[in-house]
Amino acid sequence: MDLKIDGKTGLVTGASSGIGRAIALALAAEGVRVAIVARRRKLLEEVAAEIVAAGGVRPAVIECDLMQPEAAATIADAALQALGSVEILVNNAGGSRRFELDATEAQWEEALTLNFTRQRQLTHQLLQQMIARNWGRIVNITGKSEPEGINGAFCAKAAMHSWAKGLSREVGKHGITVNSIPPGRIMSEQILRNYTPEFRQWQSEHEIPVGCYGEPEDIARLVCFLASPLARYITGTVIPVDGGLRRYQF
């Protein structure tokens, strides 16, 4: 299927590994000129080299820590300078933050900044240039809505869903769509660090209907579609990619 995004420009945060890396590679394979952002420059350079080796245009590499106070403006300025425009924005950076009852205000602030505030700020930094060309795609990689305990990231992702839905209603008239993808169990550094092989096997057999953990490419394929003109009538949605893991209907 021709997704009709060849020649467009895109920005992917958290692109040095896992889901973000797969998204950057997939968009580049479709002909998108991408800027890739993360803290670890060495890994970003490896992603850039892989894109070039596959015949793609070398991406703009932006090394930035989202916890820096001016991170959103820094990233937006660097991407616009490198690409000229950002037509596709993928807010992927973030991370789980499991808390005990006595979690500090600083811990909560860090979790909300990393998983919601910077994504919101970066999006709003880039909105006007999307509105000016009457086209844009915003895709947020979020998280599930079934907390197993107190997790600052879950709270932040719930905020992302609410904000994204409201934003979609404001910008739809400008040809801009806003969608969120909560991944299920997708193989990544975090998964390998947090879950033993035995638990992954048990969960695959007992809790995931398709019977296995997903791969980053499973997310990347949906991102590419949502980023395309073919998905013009899909906005304000939350589309899980989880092999059927979630238990609720809506």
Q: Averaging pLDDT over every residue, what do you get? A: 93
Spatial shape: globular
- Spatial order of the strands forming the largest sheet: 3-2-1-4-5-6
Structural class: alpha/beta
Helix content: 40-55%
Strand content: 5-15%
Rg over CA atoms: 17 Å
Number of helices: 8
| First-to-last CA distance | 29 Å
Low-confidence stretches: none
| Number of strand segments | 6
H-E order: EHEHEHEHEHEHHH
Largest sheet: 6 strands, parallel
What would the keywords be for this entry?
single chain; 250 residues; alpha/beta; 8 helices; 6 strands; 12% strand; globular
Q: Gist?
A:
This protein has 250 residues and is of the alpha/beta class.
List the helices and strands and how they pair.
Layout: E1 9-13, H1 18-29, E2 33-38, H2 41-53, E3 60-63, H3 71-83, E4 88-91, H4 105-133, E5 136-141, H5 152-171, E6 176-181, H6 189-194, H7 197-206, H8 216-226
Parallel strand pairs: 1-2, 1-4, 2-3, 4-5, 5-6
Protein architecture, described:
- The protein is built from eight helices and six strands; from the N terminus they run E-H-E-H-E-H-E-H-E-H-E-H-H-H.
- The protein is of the alpha/beta class.
- Helix 2 (41-53) links the parallel strand 2 and strand 3.
- It is globular.
